[in-house]
Amino acid sequence: MSYRLLHSKRDAHEDAIWSVAWSKRGNRILTGSVDDTIKIWNGDTYGETHLLEGHQLGVLSIDISPDGSTAVSTSLDSQIRFWDLMHHMKTEDRTIDAGPVEAWTAAYSPDGRHVATGSHSGNVNIWSTEEGKKERTFETRGKFIMSVAYSPNGLLLACGAENGAVHVFDVPTGRLLHSLQGHSMCVRTMTFSPDSNLLLTGSDDKRINIYDVHHANCISNLAGHQSWILSLAFSPDTTHFASGSSDKRAKIWDLKARQCLHTCNDHEDQVWGVAYSEDGSRLATVSEDRTLNIYQTSSG
Amino acid sequence: MAIPRTASIDIPIGEGRELLEVSRRDLGENEDFIFSVLNDENVDLWVYADIALEYWNQGMERQFEDAVRSGLGRAAKAPNPAEKRHHVLLLNLLISRLIEKAKAANEETKLLESSMMSEEYLNEATRLLNDVTKLDALDMFAIVARGNIRMARKEFAEALLAFEGALSRDRHCVPALIGEAAARFAMGQHRRALDGYQKVLRLKPNLTPDVRVAIGICYHQLGAVTQARKAFTRAVELDPSNLDAAMLLAIMDWNRCRHAEQDTDVIADMSNKATAILAKVHAINSRHPLFAAQMAQRKLLQNDYSAAIGFAEGALAFNRPPKLCAEALCCKGKALQAQGDYKGAYIAFLQSVKLNPDSLAAQYCLATVNIQRGDLEAAYDGLKFILTKEPHNLDVLLMLASLYTPSASHQEKAVELFNVALKIDEKKELVSQPHVLLDMARSLERTDTKEAFSSLVKALKTLHEQQQLIPLELLNNIAAMCFMLAERETHTKHKTVEEVAKQCQDSPAQVEDSFFIDESHRLGDTLFQIPLLESSLADDALWCSQNLLYVANEILSSAIARSHQDQYAGSKSVEHTKVTLLYNLGRVREALGHTNKAEAIYKQLAQSHPAYLDSRLRLGIMLLQRREVQEAVEIFKLIIDTEPKNVEARLNLGRAYIMIDSKVEAKRAFDAILKSIDPHNTPALVGLANVQLSLARSARHKEKERESWILGTHRLYETALNYDKRNVPAAIGLGIVLAESGFVAEAKVVFNQVEQATGNNPSVVLNLAHTVLSLNEKDAIVAIPLYEKAIKKGYGNDPYVWAALARAYYILGRVRKDDVSMNQALRCVQKAIRLNPSDAAMIFNLAVVKLQVAGVLNDQSIEKRVVKTMEAAKDGIATAERLLTALAARTPESRPNYTVEHAVQRRDYCKEVRKLCEKKIHETTTLERQREERKEMILQQQKDREDAKRQKEEEEKALQEEREAKIAKQREEDQKRVQANEASYRQHEEQMEKADEERKKGRGRGAKRSREVLSDAEGDESQPKESKRKLVRKKSGSAKKPANGEEKVRERGVKSQLSAEYVEESDEDDSHSKNGHTNADGEDTNDDGNERSRGGDRGSGSGEDDDDEDNIRVPSGKIQRPSFDDSDDEERDPTEA
């Protein structure tokens, strides 16, 4: 298995790149930056195809709907914006004004009908994508929710808080299923395994925890990064996952062996985002250093 | 001595001279009778002498002496000048006897008494000698005796003088010759002694004791072994009972056996011969000193120490030649040393050195025993003494260097000595010995770690090449050194050592392929680490922290794998070393970021070796880094329970308490160290100072309390700096205290100094930036690069620093009315929020900055403004307004750390800014439109002018052509006329000549005139054109000017309006920079945590390193929090919540 840097786009944005997403369909890479813009990149040639403007402040997170037609983004300007990826334009009418830091990171529900965002008050808000309205709220009565993730089967919603708390909700009933122990520092990123059985969380304590969501126990914790974990992504075949960290490195891990397979040393500043391509053969990483890197991850 | 040797002695008695015949044989039997006669009767002195000598010859020493003494008594009673010769003889006899007795007394035992007796004898002899000199100042024997007394007193130079005096009288005086030779020998003048002895031999070949022995010794001393041997052999031949000669011969044989490179037969033969002689000597006189000394050495070589001591003591029983005694003492000392009796050995060597201070061997032995006794200073002196004699003795050089190595104060000397040794040792044989290399490494440890590291690697390589067992300690030390170097190295290079590792080993050892310590996958005996180490040393590109850690990890893993092999099983300390190795592996893995593995190792160690507290300590520190403070506190408390004097544990306990803001407990922890363990512990001093500083901050409303805390803090930092001038955290702390007490300029000086001294410390840079900015806001341009440096050097993750940078940009942007800076400020605030989104005050700041982007643009002069950016900024106002609205709407219950009222004010202010902005945009747009129009107008005018010009030019051209055509026509006409004239010339030559000439002239003048007119016309035309242009220009200028003036007036109005806003704002800001000093509690403690945890990953195996690292650790280096917001302290301080 070989890992190598396929492409490196320097100064992909004017300033730090904070988020990246790779569409399941249409093979597009979206990057969001503190320069207020979102860029669309061709998933094969890695050329910039479109520039999406509309946010007034830095773009915090991007997620692409499962059908690949729309993208949702959150920004420091407190708006949740939707973008039409078919016509590469903003859809002004659907913009949601969520309030400052009311919508930190956004995650599409697997059916594409909802978007979940974490808020400063410790709530997870579920927004209807069609009506642009808040539909439900999952309350943790806790601290700032820094990360949210839907399980791919749509049944579970997990969120991670500033103080290291991780909560798992049952989506249909809205019940809090588990509060997972293991982190005592900010959980900035989390992702479910494609089979919805495992939850990965990355924290400022430099560790990645693997939880069995059904039994609510921490199976393992992985150390290797020398600073905060900023982003996580599961490979579609469930065998690997990738992590990005403040230590300027991205790492690729083997799930079964629970060990690091490769360390990407190419970024010069913290790695804010990692995203797998649809087939899992490539990994996009974005960093504070304004660079977008594409790695070949496996033969897959 | 002309005494007739008859069978009997005739003693003339009394006045009558009657003869008493005494048989010489019966002297012994008739002793009483004879002495009564001798004492009572008046007998001639020669009789006494004769009788005495007779006694002497018969071996009756006492009677001899008595006879002499009674003779002397008679001489004293009835002095007779005629008998002077005999009187002198008697005196000389007694003197010789006394000297002999003195020597014997000296020799027999070393008791104080006997030496006193010997002294008495000598004194008496001297007295008698004086008598002799009175009688006969020139008596040969007296002079010789004087020399002998000197000899007995070991005053060789004086003795030599006496003997030489005697010889000047009589060149062939044998006793004087012998005396001279002996004196010269004792003074080390072997050749001249030899000459003297040879003279004696020529004069008296049959003298006893045989002078040949002395000659042999001289030869031997001079290195002429064959001659010496010949002399000894001859002596033995002449007198088989000459033990001295026999012994010396035996010793010579034996020495040759030991050193000769002859074939074994010869050696065996020699040793047999020597042994035979020894046996013979033993049979005759088992107490012979030479024999005893020789036997002592033999026994020593045979490791029969007690026998050796016995013989040595036997040799010492005769106190005669100091060198022999010294040697014997040396033997004894060595034997005792070998038996472990260092004290006894020390005494023996000391005596030996006293007896023979020039014997370097004894000095060396003394030094070694001093080392064993632990008296290093004495050993240094001894070895240094040897070095003064033999400056190139490698053994001694290296020994002294190794001795110096462990003591910190002597390490430089050690390095020097090693360098000397390196220079001397050209073959590099000795210096390439592993233990020497190890010592070199140790000596260099402090001064040049990299060099030390390379020495260690060399040692490893040599050991490996010599196929010796590689001590685990060596591997451990190499790894520890790697680790230390890695901690120091800040470079990050892309070339990784893993590739080299792969080249060195077929199956690369994967660092990350095992969760727990898996030793089996590493084969201890493939020493692929050596090339790995060498390449890391050689290649600069590989020399970086990560690679060094990788190498350390490899080495430790393989060392642990080795420790399980059988070859190490026997070694005693292997268990202990294994623990150290494991612990160090833990440290390396921790530094590599494999915290889980490190934790597993520590846990395993804590379980298997509960007394090994270091691993527990690391566990605690790791927990601390993960903010599991309670658990960490438990661990530290446990360690303190087991070992109350554990400073590290207490320090970390204090840090843990600081993290959770338990100031009182933290203070107690640091106090405990200072009060009961070490009052000079700088980390504790600094820690305590930091706690007090935060106490001062929280007491900001009680001025007195705050002041006392501040004073205390200041004192603590100063104390810490007194103990350790290079303590960066203390220096930073001092700067902070100064800044907090209002001495910002002084604080800046402090930070500047520290920054210059350290160069790379982000905390110093940060604080320096703070002071720069708070001293003068106009210096934002200076502060910005400092903040950026701080971010680059390690604060990239710190929202607080980003916020500070944002504030600097904000200030710069406002001062310069520069939207670019303002946008930078915007980006920085956003980054701060991205890192810590829960700080609502930052959101407020974000909104303010966003709003100010528009504000700054509004403020810019109209020429600078661009509608597009203004439109964008106007859109931004909406965002700012939205944010502010939301912030303003938040309930006070949520305890926002900004003031809601301010948010409300700002929100409303947004509208104004927008209005203004719209107005400005309108203005700018109109201006731009005007500009466009004007531009077009100007263009049009220009075009018109150009058209006009072109037209004119065309006209001119036409005119010109016309003129030219005219001229051409005229010329043609003229020509025609001329031709016509010429044709008619001949006919009307005289008649027409005048008239023709007149006409011609007139025409020429006319043409000229018309040309002038033309040129005038041209000039007239061009002048109005120019003036017209000027006019146009003036017009455009005047058209612009009023507009400009209008603009300016308006602008000024606007400006004043705005600046009112600004003043309000900057006032606020000012007030913030003032109270900013005090309002950073909540965040400070957080940051402390960061610092502490940063301070936590440190050090290699040794505690000292930990301390060093601690010193570099950064304290809570915050002076003030950047604040553009107007929130009140109390509301913002989460600690009071």
TrEMBL record, chain A:
Gene3D superfamilies: YVTN repeat-like/Quinoprotein amine dehydrogenase
UniProt repeat feature WD, residue ranges: 10-42, 52-85, 107-137, 138-179, 180-221, 222-263, 264-300
Top-rank lineage group of the source organism: Eukaryota
SMART domains referenced in this protein's UniProt entry, alphabetically: WD40 (SM00320)
Pfam family membership, one: Beta-prop_EML_2
SUPFAM superfamilies, per database record: WD40 repeat-like
Keyword Repeat found: yes
PROSITE patterns: WD_REPEATS_1, WD_REPEATS_2, WD_REPEATS_REGION
Gene Ontology CC terms: nucleus; protein-containing complex
Keywords: Repeat, WD repeat
Domain EML-like second beta-propeller: 104-272
Descriptive protein name: WD repeat-containing protein 61
Organism: Geranomyces variabilis
From TrEMBL, chain B:
Compositional bias annotation for Basic and acidic residues: 927-1000, 1043-1054
Biased composition (Acidic residues): 1125-1137
UniProt keywords, alphabetically: Repeat, TPR repeat
GO molecular function, one term: RNA polymerase II complex binding
GO cellular component terms, A-Z: Cdc73/Paf1 complex
One GO process term, biological-process aspect: transcription elongation by RNA polymerase II
PROSITE patterns: TPR
Lineage top rank: taxon: Eukaryota
Keyword Cytoplasm applies: no
Ranges where the record places region Disordered: 927-1137
One Pfam family per UniProt: TPR_19
Renumbered ranges of TPR repeats: 174-207, 209-242, 326-359, 613-646, 806-839
Basic residues bias spans: 1027-1038
UniProt KW Cell cycle keyword: no
PANTHER family on file: RNA POLYMERASE-ASSOCIATED PROTEIN CTR9 (PTHR14027), RNA POLYMERASE-ASSOCIATED PROTEIN CTR9 HOMOLOG (PTHR14027:SF2)
Protein name, as recorded: Protein required for normal CLN1 and CLN2 G1 cyclin expression
Organism lineage string: Eukaryota, Fungi, Fungi incertae sedis, Chytridiomycota, Chytridiomycota incertae sedis
